[in-house]
Amino acid sequence: xxxxxxxxxxxxxSNSFRLEIGHxxxxxxxxTEYLKETVRQGSGLDxxxxxxxxxxxxxxxxxxxxxxxxxxxxxxxxxxxxTQTLREARNRDVFLTQANRILxxxxxxxxxxxxxxxxxxxVAQSLAHSDERRLVIDIGGRSTEMILGHGxxxxxxxxxxxxxxxxxxxxxxxxxxxKEAFQMAEIAAKAVLDEALNAYSxxxxxxxxxxxxxxxxxxxxxxxxxxxxxxVTRAGLDWLLDKLLSAQSADRIKLLxxxxxxxxxxxxxLSILRALFDLLHIDQMQLASGGLRHGLLxxxxxxxxxxxxxxxxxxxRLATKFGADTVHGQRVGQVALQLLAQLDGGAQTKNTxxxxxxxxxxxxxxxxxxxxxxxxxxxxxxxGAYILDNADAMGFSLSELHRLxxxxxxxxxxxxxxxxxxxxxxFVKQLLTLxxxxxxxxxxxxxxxxxxQIQLDTRRQCFExxxxxxxxxxxxxxxxxxxxxxxAWQKTPWSICFVED
Length: 501
Prior knowledge:
Blueprint: E1 6-12, E2 16-25, E3 28-38, H1 53-69, E4 78-82, H2 84-88, H3 92-103, E5 107-109, H4 112-126, E6 133-139, E7 144-150, E8 153-160, H5 164-171, H6 179-193, H7 196-199, E9 207-211, H8 213-224, E10 231-233, H9 234-247, H10 266-279, E11 284-288, H11 292-301, H12 307-321, H13 326-343, H14 350-353, H15 357-368, H16 380-389, H17 398-410, H18 425-440, E12 453-457, E13 462-466, H19 471-474, H20 476-488, E14 495-499
Parallel strand pairs: 1-4, 4-5, 6-9, 9-11, 13-14
Antiparallel strand pairs: 1-2, 2-3, 6-7, 7-8, 10-11, 12-13
Helix pairs in contact: 1-3, 4-11, 5-10, 6-10, 8-10, 9-10, 13-15, 13-18, 15-17, 15-18, 16-17, 18-20
């Protein structure tokens, strides 16, 4: 990226929404503006795990203010992500449809492990180079991320559904503090986090770091009371617990360094942090200045592996894990890309087409279209779609994985099962070319594509497939399957015409 390029990262957390803006100066990000609003959307999930109207509105209002500040930014200069609350929200699409429009940029809901990767990336870039083995912990509003890493590379990442908002709501009713409430909260946190004991045991790391959220809030309070700056210790946590128990309620807390937005959720956050210190035998934790949004900026700056390469490796891992036929997946992908190039006017060569987002996603869908066969050959496309909708794949947002799952689900069979947007021309092209490639490669060998052509009449929303004279007679099964494909599209807004000779 060039000197002076503007960059912005938006973090839709469960407690706060944050916007960080800056520019590049000799490959360094220089912050020029930082906005934070306490939206506390994590408190806005009802008993059915739907965001309440009030929670959605408060989020939209904040994003409108962020959107005004981002006016004039290019799409490549802004990255916005949402975390645990929107991972949980059953009506997140309702919120996101409006939120994307208001902000002016797409918002990606990322998986817990992807959030953990980005957090580590943000923390690592803020620390001096070292050979130390690092444990990084981020206690958010509704989830806690834990990462082991060395240098700039995370080696183990996990996200646990325990957070300061959720625990404060559940164990400190009306923000009242008691010894019994803290005991229950810590026991419950340990029950969730207990599975981390072996993987994150003290012999796997040298230094523990805490990122943002609860750890930062606790560190601020301890520092204001005279404890060592930038460090949280067991003794400090005991001291803070005594202070909260003496206050008896959040509104009676009188502690320097405690920000008002943290007052209602300090009880839940402290109980989780104490549980982690006990479980992992942590004596002290260093405060790190980096976090999720900084990890986003590092990604945008290209400071780590190419995001496309990261996704490609995730796709390869999924294909390998579920025993997909990689040779056949590549074959289907090559044919699909060839057909997509024809639909796009043939302006791109096969090599350059593979770098375009739509083509790249089509290629990945082809590589993954048979991963469900590992579970059962019957309805394997449905199993494959389920895997993708529930997978943690580094580099992908949940919406991107869902789009891949729709392509995998729709690569065969009836189309009415798809809850897809058939008004999206790009998706329709991806879906059709993938289905056609699967048909043409049905014999699991390279098909004869000589003379096979496809073009689109956009006015009539009709795809015309043609082949050279005699092709249908040479390949009667392929011709039969193409005729069946014509029928499959009849109940969609699009149609296919197969011209055999």
